[in-house]
UniProtKB/TrEMBL annotation:
Bilayer-crossing regions: 66-93, 105-125, 145-165, 172-195, 263-285, 305-329, 361-380, 386-405, 425-445, 451-468
InterPro entries assigned: AA/rel_permease1, APC_K+_Transporter
Record keyword Cytoplasm present: no
Organism per entry: Lacunisphaera limnophila
Protein's UniProt keywords contain Ligase: no
Membrane topology: Multi-pass membrane protein
UniProt name for this protein: Amino acid transporter
Keywords, alphabetical: Membrane, Transmembrane, Transmembrane helix
GO cellular component terms listed in the entry, alphabetical order: membrane
Pfam families membership: AA_permease_2 (PF13520)
Length: 669
């Protein structure tokens, strides 16, 4: 069996069989209903209840009853952020993530800052979720097993990376039973704590009042506020993940706005109840930290102390569900991180290859990058949740704040046309005030504890994005000059073709690979008569419309791409006919441009047996690793495929970075 067949079979086994654009149920198969979106996207927020309340409670130290105020503040914060993001979902129905909101409502520069912050945050989401899941799982195991916790966490990141390469639904559906086990066990634990300790709630309130008096008497009101502020800030990881729904709208089932808002409601209610309920349960059971165990593990063990084997089973099931949910939470990083990266790549802040789709219609390059970055971060931090919590949350509040600022600006601009602008502005205005306050607090509290590292990495990523954009802008400027040059010179080109535009299939035919009607394509077409005189009587144009993250949103978008691709190719054919040549077009759409080109080339070669293929390729006067990374070399890759298919192929390089483009053809075949 050939090696390629073996590799293909192995890929199908691990990643899954390729999907087809002709499948009428394709978008149904790759999208999520609200309930399943709650699992895939909401798990990020809900899972933070496994470490957010704990970090808050630990930070309060000798003043545990102040947790009542943190619980109330957390519920208010979750409600405000969810309400404001519901408005973002309505305004950006095709995907209103922080990058797009800031880019469109503030400026592209603000958008790239927001997007870069989100990317770092999603890497940390993957890392902290898997690390926390390992902590929860190893809380159930003997201490001697702790040496295996880091290898287990690394294997977890690698496994999730492979799972997400299979597709959105596949990476979510496997976790649905575990997710609802978590919901059921934690809802039961919170209700049991409240009902079994109902008479003690009055005592908790009295103890809280007394603790406020004691702390304010010892440290003053400023000292009391400082304690509350630090505890609230350390638990800010609780609110990360709320933005995941607005970022992930393109993968939700139609109608997306309604599905997104329903998902947001599910997530907000479940998160607020779980966080507030756990903090109160810590107080009711007088939970204190125990080495090697999470606070939730201590709580559940105290709660079930007299239940015997049933209690042991409940604790094991609940903590195992926590560990699994934390792994599910990493899904947000794999689902939304590559999507943010793809959106930025489409705008040329990052290499265009990050917008490409695999044959499973996932952004494969982005998933691999997020998985690799998660593995690197896990190794650097040794899977320490305490350290990761310090690095976490600052970035997401940069995005929160920029998004809310953009929405406030939008409603103010629309005040003359939007009847409900005051209410909507008030919602986002309150969200802006809240997220700005948390951002400043987090930065002050966490900066010297390691938060500076997060800000530094985010700054470097932002600077890299601006450098990449500057490069692409320079290339685009030169290509626009070429467009003007070619358009003006096209009319003056010697008419070396036949006097009529009759298409005779037995005549010698130049088959050109083009990508949109532009200067590069026309420049390539003009070189054929200049180099070969009147030997070619026909011009045939092959064009493939690339299905990427920008247009893979529904069958309507795919059909629009198909129509646009055919129209662009026909413009070349019309140009050829005006110059007296016979002309024809072959077009297709697909995620793998190279494969589609080979299919079209085979068809064209069969119809026009006396043929030579031509393709233009950008070459830089000063070729560097950066230019090789930022630009594909499709023509040269195709050249190898054409060689193997015994098809004559000519690459016409177009030099970029010189005053005037020169053509130095490379003959093949």
């Amino acid at each position: 069996m050939p090696a390629s067949t073996i590799l293909g079979s192995l890929k199908s086994l691990i990643v899954g069989r390729a999907r087809s654009l002709t499948d009428r149920d394709l978008f149904h198969k790759v999208s999520l209903a609200a309930l399943f979106a709650w699992v895939g996207l909401g798990a990020d927020g809900l899972s933070s209840s496994c470490y957010g309340p704990e970090e808050t409670f630990r930070t309060l130290g000798a003043h545990p009853h102040l947790a009542v105020f943190i619980a109330l503040a957390s519920i208010i914060t979750i409600t405000a952020i969810c309400a404001s993001y519901s408005q973002i979902i309505a305004l950006f129905p095709s995907g209103g993530g922080g990058y797009l909101v800031a880019s469109k409502l503030l400026s592209p520069a603000a958008g790239v800052v927001s997007g870069s912050a989100l990317l770092i945050d999603y890497v940390l989401t993957i890392t902290i979720s898997v690390a926390s899941g390992a902590d929860a799982l190893f809380s159930l195991l003997p201490p001697a097993w702790l040496a295996w916790k880091l290898p287990f966490a690394l294997a977890g990141v690698a496994g999730l990376t492979v799972l997400n390469l299979r597709g959105v639904r596949e990476s979510v559906m496997i976790w649905v039973p575990v997710f609802f086990v978590f919901i059921g066990t934690h809802a039961f634990a919170i209700l049991y704590a409240l009902f079994s300790h109902g008479p003690e709630l009055g005592g908790v309130a009295a103890a809280t009042v007394q603790e406020v008096r004691t702390v304010s008497g010892e440290l003053g009101w400023i000292g009391l506020l400082a304690i509350l502020l630090k505890a609230y800030s350390m638990g800010a990881g609780t609110y990360t993940g709320i933005e995941a729904v607005s970022n992930g709208l393109p993968i939700l089932r139609e109608p997306r706005v309604r599905t997104g808002r329903r998902t947001m409601l599910y997530m907000g209610v479940s998160l607020a109840v779980t966080v507030g309920g756990l903090l109160l349960a810590y107080l009711l059971y007088a939970v204190t930290p125990v080495a090697g165990k999470t606070l939730n593990a201590v709580l559940f063990e105290k709660m079930t102390a007299g239940w015997g084997a049933t209690g042991t089973a409940f604790v094991f099931t609940t903590l195992a569900a926590e560990a699994a949910l934390l792994f599910i939470a990493a899904q947000a990083g794999f689902l939304d991180g590559p999507r943010v990266l793809a959106n930025m790549a489409l705008d040329r802040w990052f290499p265009a290859r990050f917008a490409n789709l695999s044959d499973r219609f996932v952004t494969q390059n982005g998933i691999l990058l997020m998985g690799g970055a998660g593995l690197l971060m896990m190794v650097i931090t040794r899977g320490s949740v305490a350290l990761l919590v310090v690095l976490y949350a600052i970035n997401v509040f940069i995005t929160f704040t920029l998004s809310q600022l953009g929405m406030v600006r939008h409603w103010w601009r629309e005040r003359h046309t939007e009847p409900a602008w005051r209410r909507k502005l008030a919602v986002n205005g309150f969200g802006l005030a809240l997220t700005s306050f948390i951002l400043v607090s987090l930065t002050l509290v966490k900066f010297h504890e390691g938060g500076w590292a997060t800000l530094l990495v985010t700054g470097l990523l932002t600077a890299t994005a601006f450098a990449i954009k500057r490069h692409y802008r320079g290339v685009q400027h030169q290509l626009r000059r070429l467009d003007t040059l070619v358009e003006s010179s096209a009319a003056d080109t010697a008419q070396v073709g036949q006097s009529s535009s009759t298409l005779l299939k037995q005549d010698r035919t130049a088959i050109l690979l083009v990508n949109g009607y532009n200067g590069l394509g026309l420049h390539t077409a003009l070189q054929v008569p200049r180099m070969f005189g009147d030997s070619f009587r026909n011009f045939v144009f092959l064009q493939v419309g690339a299905v990427d993250a920008g247009n893979f949103k529904g069958m309507a978008e795919i059909e629009a791409l198909r129509t646009h691709t055919a129209a662009e190719a026909e413009r070349y054919a019309a140009w050829a006919r005006r110059h007296g040549y016979g002309a024809a077009t072959f077009t297709a759409v697909g995620h793998d441009v190279t494969e589609e080109v080979m299919t079209l080339a085979t068809q064209a070669a069969a119809q026009f047996p006396n043929h030579v293929f031509f393709a233009g390729q950008l070459l830089f006067a000063q070729e560097t690793r950066l230019t090789r990374w930022l630009h594909n070399h499709t023509a040269f890759m195709l050249q190898q495929r054409f060689f193997r298919a015994s098809l004559p192929f000519v690459v016409l390089p177009l030099r970029v970075g010189e005053d005037l483009p020169r053509v130095e053809p490379q003959m093949a075949g």
